[in-house]
Amino acid sequence: MKILDRYILTSYFKTFFSVFIILVLIFVLQTIWLYIKELAGKDLDIVVIAKFLLYFLPKLMPLVLPLTILLASIMVFGSFAENYEFAAMKSTGISLQRAMTGLGIFIAILGVLTFLFSNNVIPWAEYNSYNLRKNIAKIKPAMGIAEGQFNPIGESGTNIKVEEKSGDNDQYLKNVIIHKKGTGGRKNTTTIVAETGELISSDSSSVIKLVLHDGNYYEDRIPRKTADKKKYPFAKSLFKTYIINIDLSDFNNVDVDDKNYTDKYNMLDISSLDYTIDSLTNKRSEDHKILSKTLYQRANIYKPGMTKEPTIEGGDDINPIDIEKKAIINQTFENEETVEKDSIYSGEILDLFNTKTKSQIVNVSLSGINSAKQLVTTKRANLKPTKSLYNRHIISFHEKFALGFACVILFFVGAPLGALIRKGGIGLPMVIAILLFLTYHFIGIFAMNSAKNGGFNPILASWFSTLIMLPLSIFLTKRATEDKGLFDMDSITDPLRKMFNIKPQNSIDYKFLQSYTNEELIDVINNYEALEHKEESRYEAIKILNSRDVSTKTLREDGLAIQAGFEKSQKINKDYSDHTKFAITLYSIGAVLLILFFVFKNNKLPSLAIASIQLSIISFAIYIIYYIKSLINVKNFYANINKANKKPNVIMLIVGLPLYMIGYLFIKSKLKEDLKQNCLDSLK
To answer: Do 19 and 68 form a contact (C-beta atoms < 8 A)?
Structure first.
């Protein structure tokens, strides 16, 4: 290892470990503050609290490590630039890439170690911390009752909600609502509402008393007669004091080291996640098959020639609509067989039946459609939690890989950024690092929350914030290695000025040439120096002559010394303009129709929505054809002027496909400039 590499690594390690320790302490304090409610008032010994912090420490690494790398990189390289150490390196022929080589190797190794850490240590920490929190919550039942939400307590099927808790042990409750489920646990049959309540326990008893004051007791009654059920009868009673005994035998024998929970997605490593994802995929596929089979059976599809009449499965839960549908279908088949014996019928099928049967068929069909729709809606609601769990497993799987890559990419954001801002220490680097990290972190949070709800691809969500930082790292590294500033306003304003045809203040306006005759314009082209005109006036004169129906070919035949290649360039440029006009028109039509599709869809106009999307697809398809033609024109143009290296960037052409209006303006401006230069070169 060379002295320079040793010096850079030593400087980086000192800053890295200092920042790492400070950030760990900050996040540990934040963790204690976040979970202080679960620890306070539990009579926990110091060993349990130490375990709690030990188990939560590895889970902080996805936040601490990327921020440490980003901040340390900005501080170290900013200090090097501020103290002119980079200038000294460059004077000896050492580039920024060479200075970053040793640290780059270290960061790459750190990225691999981060992956191993996230695959082995973080699942272990999640497993232990989750079980420890569950066991701590059982030590005092009042801690298991969160304010403002329903919490299961005591016997199965009982849920309690309190508005506010008070007292030394949160034993006093305000505005208590209790729901008890009936036989079979299908629905709430008993509701208890009380203004206040109190939890009373004894060290010698495994039963806790929930004493309620000033409330009402509601209980649903289930009559035997079907007609009485529609009245939804219930019993109501008023009480001053009501006592509920809750068995806490399980709560009083809590082992904080017990580890019964093992199946959370955050507790699994790569191999376990891969196995679980495969199982969940098979389960989802099986659920979809069962749903499709159920819908097929409910449709009672029957074909002529079947020896067995349609059957309806369901046992005791047969829908009366399905029974009626079966009867109508059987009657339909009898009529259909009669028609089949006589002739081949190709008219309206309902005309084969009388008015009463027609009405029955239509009603049963509508009932069947509504029943199937309700089944699909219910099944979709039931599958939503399964889909969310499936997405969470995929996110957890890819997060382990993304964390290691994030460490590498954030280094290549921080190191060149520090060299560009030329400022070390805690002040400005700290502000920039926090802003960048918050951007990175919140983008990741929003993407993952969307993916968990099914609104975003879970694989892309895991990598999204890292992919956002990737082009920034490439841009900053390129700027730093080329020894350019952080921002170059000319590189931004010049293309915009050309795109919108905004001329600089000191530019020359050639409108005065419009008053010249054709002979005077030709004289300007041939003798621009004698007439004290700029060279650009020759091109402007040719443009004016062309607008007066004097072609470049005619000018050349009359003796103008201009090469034939410029005439071909003009023709290609005209073809490009024609193709882009068609492309713009088709793009606009397709975009408008696409917007109308969503408008019609939201206003429940399916026919118009389908027509809009179909026409939109056709417009975009033809637009792509003309877009490709315009790209061919661009390629031929630069091949004709022998400057293929000056053609538009490939990225610009790709971006120009969905954002055509923007890309078109840039390409048009570039072609205009290059056509002008080609004209001037052809006149030499």
So the answer is: yes
Query: Do residues 38 and 31 make contact, with C-beta atoms less than 8 angstroms apart?
Result: no
Q: 388-439, pLDDT tens digit by residue?
A: 888 888 888 888 889 889 999 999 888 888 888 877 767 777 788 888 888 8
What is the distance, to the nearest Å, from the Cα of residue 650 to the centroid of all Cα atoms in its chain? Answer: 26
Q: For the chain, count helices (H), then strands (E).
A: 21, 6
* Tokens at 345, concatenated: 């019928």
Which ranges of 203-245 would DSSP assign to H, the alpha helix? 226-229
Backbone angles phi, psi at 528, to 5 degrees: -65, -30
Contact partners, residue 617, CB within 8 Å, separation at least 6: 590
CB count in 10 Å sphere of residue 346: 6
Q: Which amino acid, 450?
A: S
Residues 6 or more apart whose Cβ sits within 8 Å of residue 423: 78, 81, 82, 429
- State how far the Cα of 683 lies from the Cα of 110, in Å rounded to an integer: 61
Secondary structure of 593-656 as H, E, C letters: HHHHHHHHHHCCCHHHHHHHHHHHHHHHHHHHHHHHHHHHHHHHHHHHCCCHHHCCCHHHHHHC
Phi-psi region at 84: left, alpha or beta (left = phi > 0; alpha = psi -120 to 50):
left
Dist. CA 629–CA 617, nearest whole Å? 19
Give start and end residues of each alpha helix (H) in 300-350: 320-342
CB 114 within 8 A of CB 255: no
Residue ranges with strand state E in 201-262: 207-220, 234-247
Chain segment 180-202, per-residue pLDDT in tens: 877 655 566 788 999 998 887 66
